[in-house]
Design goal:
Blueprint lengths: L4 H11 L5 H55 L1 E4 L13 E3 L1 E8 L5 E11 L4 H18 L6 H8 L1 E9 L6 E22 L3 E11 L4 H5 L9 E7 L2 H7 L1
Antiparallel strand pairs: 1-3, 2-6, 3-4, 4-5, 5-6, 6-7, 7-8
Length: 244
């Protein structure tokens, strides 16, 4: 027996029924959760890629600078600073963040060029250093000499390695060239070993550099960018020839 026509119409209407409001909200919530997770993973991938590329770039530039300094040490003469007493183990070797050497002479043997490599803290000059030291002494006497946090000390040491070419032939030293060699330097140490003379026998460079965009990389990320440390030694050719 055939069914009533209205019954078939009701069945067709139920078969074409769409999503309810609750189902749509659940679907949107799941989609938003998956999209948020995908974007977070993509952001982490971009940060990791940027950190890797910046570290690689900084490493290459740092090696070029270190090789250039080693070349200066091998070909230079009359290095400084030097100890007052070479035989005193407390003064020799000299540990410093600045060194200089003679790189030019005239036909009579007079010094015409002195090359100086020095580490400068960004945005800080000698007057600022003196004022900070005086304030630190005053606060130490009044408040019991509280020591600064290690993070503040490390952040204050980040600076730039500078190349300075000086003409000492006049009454006053004249700066011929002054340009930065390497930025984002956390620390640099030059260890100068001297023999009687005083004559430099070996120089060791210990350099720690941060990636160029280390500040940007730490924003919104848990991992701290890895610093780069380079250690290298060289001896002047004149010292090597004198030992033969």
């Amino acid at each position: 027996m055939a069914g009533h026509p209205n019954q078939h119409a009701v069945q067709r209407r139920h078969g074409r029924r769409g999503f309810s409001l609750v189902e749509m909200l659940i679907a949107l919530t799941i989609s938003a959760t998956l999209l948020t997770a995908a974007l977070a993973a993509l952001d982490s991938m971009f940060k990791g890629y940027k950190q890797t590329t910046e570290s690689a770039s900084t490493h290459v530039v740092s090696r070029i600078v270190v090789n250039r300094l080693l070349g200066l040490i091998r070909t230079g003469e009359e290095f400084g600073p030097f100890p007052e007493n070479v035989l005193d183990a407390g003064q020799n070797p000299v540990v410093t963040d600045t060194f200089e050497l003679v790189t030019g002479r005239d036909e009579y043997g007079g010094i015409t060029e002195i090359t100086r490599i020095e580490f400068r803290v960004d945005g800080e000059d000698d007057e600022d250093v003196d004022e900070e030291e005086e304030e630190g002494e005053d606060s130490g006497e009044e408040e019991g000499g509280e020591e600064p946090d290690e993070e503040e000390v490390d952040e204050a040491k980040v600076g730039t390695l500078w190349y300075v070419l000086i003409d000492p032939s006049g009454d006053e030293e004249e700066i011929l060239i002054e340009q930065p060699l390497l930025d984002n330097v956390r620390t640099v140490t030059f260890t100068l070993h001297y023999d009687v003379g005083p004559r430099l026998t070996r120089a060791t460079i210990d350099l720690i550099v941060e990636p160029n965009d280390s500040v940007d990389l730490t924003i919104g990320a848990d991992a701290t960018p890895q610093t780069i440390r380079l250690v290298a030694s060289a001896s002047p050719r004149q010292s090597l020839s004198g030992l033969r």
